[in-house]
Write a structure and sequence with these properties.
Largest sheet: none
Structural class: mainly alpha
Distance between the termini: 37 Å
Radius of gyration: 18 Å
Strand content: under 5%
Number of helices: 11
Shape: globular
Number of strands: 0
Order of helices and strands: HHHHHHHHHHH
Mean pLDDT: 81
Number of domains: 1
Length: about 210
């Protein structure tokens, strides 16, 4: 596998990671209130990415293609989770409108523990198995038919690390004090908008899973 092919895969992975989706929305929502929570969510997301990348490079896409029912089931379950997440986010936004936080510290405290946020990030990423098909379409044309194990391992780690660095960068920029102060008043609407996005994305995922059965 040439270095140019390796670089091309990483570049396409970064473009895909930066595209609007549940992961980006989740990290952005947390980053408007707490850098620590945003990075915890990004870490959870990247553990999920590492899982999907490992499955993709080692042939899971072929398995999901051979057994579409498995993909459909995961989509339905994942979609239901995203809808649940969306409802919680909308409720949080409505509560914030009634009782807005007095300062940034209280806004961050309302997000819960970083462990909880990490698990939310992980579950959000794992809820969408289509990442396997996306990665397979991106990797397969550039990967040798029988790559050495070290190439596969290096590719998995590089894909995961590159997208993780992108999410950490996003978390750091959005969570700067100047930006957080400006967005604090908009916190309830950010939660509500994020919730609506999750509900719509979840419903679309459930419908795609049902249609595929």
């Amino acid at each position: 596998m040439s270095w140019s092919a390796f670089a091309a895969i990483l570049l396409m992975n970064l473009v895909g990671a930066a595209a609007p989706g549940p992961d980006i929305v989740l990290v952005t929502r947390y980053a408007t209130r707490s850098r620590r929570h945003a990075i915890a969510a990004a870490t959870g997301i990247q553990v999920g990415v590492l899982f999907w990348c490992t499955l993709t490079v080692f042939g899971a896409a072929a398995l999901l293609t051979a057994f579409p029912g498995v993909l459909s089931l995961i989509q339905v379950i994942g979609g239901c989770f995203l809808v649940f997440m969306g409802v919680l986010s909308i409720r949080s936004g409505l509560e914030l409108r009634k009782q807005p936080p007095v300062d940034e510290e209280e806004a961050a405290a309302r997000l819960g523990s970083v462990g909880k946020v990490f698990r939310t990030g992980l579950a959000t990423n794992l809820s969408n198995p289509k990442i396997v098909l996306f990665l397979a379409a991106m990797v397969a044309p550039l990967l040798p038919p029988h790559p050495p194990v070290w190439v596969s391992v290096a590719l998995v780690l590089s894909l995961s690390l590159s997208s993780y660095l992108l999410f950490v960068f996003l978390s750091t920029v959005i969570s700067t004090r100047a930006i957080r102060r400006r967005l604090l008043a908009a916190g309830p609407w950010i939660d509500i908008a994020s919730g609506v996005f999750f509900v719509v994305a979840g419903c679309a995922l459930v419908w795609a899973g049902i249609q595929a059965t």
